[in-house]
Amino acid sequence: MKVLVVGANGKIGHQVVTMLEESNTHSVRAFVRKEEQAEELKQKGIEAHLGNLEGSVSDLGEAVKGVDAVVFSAGSGGSTGADKTLLIDLDGAVKVIEAAQNVGVDRFILVSAFGANNRESWIGNEDMAPYYVAKHYADKALEQSNLDYTIVRPGGLLDEPAKDKIKVAENLEVSESDEGTVPREDVAKVIVASLDNEKTYRKAFDLVSGEQAIEEALNQL
After folding, report:
1. Among residues 131, 132, 137, 149, which one is catalytic?
2. Which domains, from first to last, does the chain contain?
3. Per-residue pLDDT of the chain (221 residues; tens, 9 = 90+)
4. With a threshold of 0.90, does the pTM exceed it?
5. What residues are paired with 71 via a beta bridge?
6. Does the active-site annotation cover 149?
7. CA 111 → CA 1, 36, 66, 140, 161, distances in Å?
């Protein structure tokens, strides 16, 4: 399976690109927005596409042509305002969804956020509300599409080595004793494992560290 990774320079996207490049069953095209990022990838032998999520759907269609699946892990980042969050995390995602449908790519994996499906969890969190709103409606757009989607809603993201043990469910309840976190490397592994696992097709689920092996947990969705 050839996979377009949108947000390939991000912390999760970069790990997904590396895992796909090292895979025996998949290949990768990395979508980045800076020339120097594209050159660095090309020097490593990785196919790179230079593009802008604020561009048109037809432009984004050029990035999607010729792949079998799309992974969208892009985000505007914590240093931008609500305007960029809506333009990248929401509208950027929706445009890539539309582009995938236009060119006939069926498989789409979207990285969302824990709690994005539950409006009540955002109440009183004014700083993060635009981020959750963006994720919520990007998720809705994908769910209403005709794509074989998977929406992954990870908990608090950690820059730690993978534990290779996770917990997934459509709606996870995190207790006070449960940190509700997950290493970014485990998120990347879940994305790659989900690509051709039909148990994850047309599913949206929360993801935190747990006690089950990744494949075992995904197979129970």
Report:
1. 131
2. 2-219 (3.40.50.720)
3. 999 999 999 999 999 999 999 999 999 999 999 999 999 999 999 999 999 999 999 999 999 999 999 999 998 776 667 888 899 999 999 999 999 999 999 999 999 999 999 988 787 777 788 899 999 999 999 999 999 999 999 999 999 999 999 999 999 987 655 679 999 999 999 999 999 999 999 999 999 999 999 999 999 99
4. yes
5. 5, 109
6. no
7. 19, 25, 22, 13, 19
